[in-house]
Amino acid sequence: MLKRILSTLALALAVTSVSAQESVWKTHCGTPTGQDKFPIYSYKELPAFEKSDPAQWKGVKGITAFWGDKDFRYPATYSPAGLKSVPVAKVLKGWRGERVFAQAVISSAVEAKDVEYVISDLKGSAAVIPASCIEAGFLRYVMTDEIGPTGNGCNARPDHSAYDSSMVADCVDPYLKSMDMGAMQTQGLWLTCWIPQDVPAGTYRGTVTIKSAGKTVRTLKLDVVAQKEVLPLPKDWSFHLDLWQNPFAVARYYQVPVWSKDHLEAMRPIMERLAKAGQKVITTSITHHPWHSQTEDPFESMITWTKKVDGTWEYGFDVFDMWVEFMMSCGIDQQINCYSMAPWKLSFLYLDQATYSLKEISTAPGEATYELLWTDFLKAFAKHLREKGWLGKTAIAMDERPMDVMKQIISVIKKADPGFKIALAGNYYEEIDKDVDDYCIVVPDKFPEGVVDRRRSEGKFSTYYTCCQPGKPNTFTCSDPAESREIGLLVANLNADGYLRWAYNSWPLEPLLDSRFRSWAAGDTYLVYPGNRTSIRFEHLIEGIQEYEKLKSLK
Question: Is 201 strand, coil or helix?
Fold first, then answer.
C-alpha cells in the first residue's frame, strides 16, 4: 500500500512538472517547425540570424576543406578568403593512452549537397590505430548569450533580450553523417583520437576525406605521433573530478519514467562518457530539492522519509541503492556525495503514514528538532551503508553554506556516526578544515599557503570550482574553448587535487537548440548534450585534465 501511495504521489509531481514545461514550450520562440519537442538523434538547429557578407567571400570558389584551429569557434559565416595558406596536413602528438584533438573546417562559396567525411585507419610501421579510435562529428550551432556587465555570468536573465545572443559551434554530433551546405557557409568537423595504450611508439598516418555529392572535395592528411610515455586509464587518474550529475533531466528530456529501465538505458552512455573523463564522485540527493528548484529539472530525494503512525521514522533506500549501483556499473565508484543537510530552503519533505500525505518539517541547524531529525536519519543511513560496504566512501555534502551553519551540521554528523566523510564546496574556513574531507573553493580564491600539502598528507582532497563566476576561465558556451583546457592547468599551478562543476547535464528546456537559461550565462548548466553528444568545451576540459596528469607524472 505504501509503495503504491508513493508511486501515485511521484506521478502527480511528474505530471505537474511536464505541464509546466508544456506551458514554457508553447511560449518559446524560434523552435524549428516540424520537429519533435525533445529530439535525440536527428534535429534541426535554430535558424541563423547572421548572414554572410558577399564582399568577404570574394575570390572564394567552390567548396574547400582545411585543418583549422581547435581553439576557435568558426562562425557559419566565416570566410577563408583571408587565409594566406590552406593547411591540408595535421600532426597531433600525444602519450599512448592520451586523447588528442583537431578541428577540420569546410567552407563553401556555393550550395553543396551531401557533404560528408570519411576517416581512414592510421597506419604505422608496426601497428594500426583503427578509425574506431577517432570520435568525430560535425559541430552544431547552439544559441548562446554573453557573460554580462558584471564581468561574470551570475546575472539572473529572465529577459534574454537584455543580453547579446548569437549562434556558436559547440555540440559534436556523430549522428549527422552528411549535410547540405548553403552558399557562403562554413562548417566545423571535430575529431578526438584516443591513442591506444598498447600501440608501439611511432607515427601513424591516415586521412580525412571530405566529399560532396559522392565526389572528393579534399583529402586532409592526419599524422598521430604516439610518444613513448603512457598515460594511465582515466579510472586511475589522480585528478579529483566532480561534475554533478542530474538523472532527472535525462528522464524529462527522453520522456521516460524516472528510474525505469528505459531511464537507466538512456543515462548509461552519458555517464560512461563521464567516467572516461576521470570522474570520481556520484552525486546523490537525500532530501527533496536540495537546491530549491534552481534547475529546469529539480532534484527529487533518492531516499524516502516516512513518519510512521507511532511517530518513529522509516527510510527507503531502494532508489538510492539503484542509482549508486548503476553509476558504479558505469565506472564511477570512488566517492558518493549526499546532498544535503542544508538545502537552500530549510524544509524537509516526508510521507506522513497517519494521513497518507506529504508533509514538510521546517527546521534549521542549531535547533533541537533539526538535531533529532537528522540524528535518527544518519544512524539508519550509516547502518545501511555499512551493510552495502559504502560508508567509507560516502560524504555528507553541502555547498556554499556559512561557517556557523557548517559547525552545527558537523557536530550532528559526528555525534550520529563519525564514519561519515564530509564534503563542502564554498568558502575556506580554517576552523572547520580538519573536519572536511573533500574541500572545494571557488576560483579565484586560494587555499592558504601549505594547506593543500598538509591536507593531502592527511588523505583529504582540496579542489577548486567554477560556477557562474569567474568570467574567465569558465565553460560557458560563450567562453573561448581554450578556457576549459586552462582549468586543468590552473589546478596544477595551484597545487590542488581537482575540479568541481555543479552541472554536467542539468539541461535547459531545449539544450540542442538553446543553451541559455533564466539564470547565469549560457552553458553554465551543462557540458554535454542529449544523445550522448560531447561538446568542444568538454573535450577541452579533458585535455586540461590530461595535462595535469602528465605534469604530475613528469614531476
Answer: coil
What would be the CATH architecture of the domain defined by 239-554?
A: Alpha-Beta Barrel (3.20)
The cell 574556513 sits on which residue?
A: 429
Answer left, alpha or beta for residue 97, where phi above 0 means left and psi between -120 and 50 means alpha: left
CATH topology of domain 54-230: Immunoglobulin-like (2.60.40)
- 3-state DSSP assignment of residue 80: helix
Strand 240-243 to 498-501 pairing: parallel
Helices (H) then strands (E): counts for the chain: 9, 24
| Burial class of residue 190 (count of CB atoms within 10 Å of its CB; 0-12, 13-18, 19+) | buried
Question: pLDDT tens digits for 59-107?
Answer: 999 999 999 999 999 999 999 998 988 899 999 999 999 999 999 999 9
Cell of 366: 542549531
The helix/strand/coil state of 71 is: coil
Terminal CA-to-CA distance of the chain, rounded, Å?
Answer: 61
> Cis (ω within 30 of 0) for the bond into 80?
no
pTM of the model: 0.93
CA pair distance 519, 156, nearest whole angstrom: 4
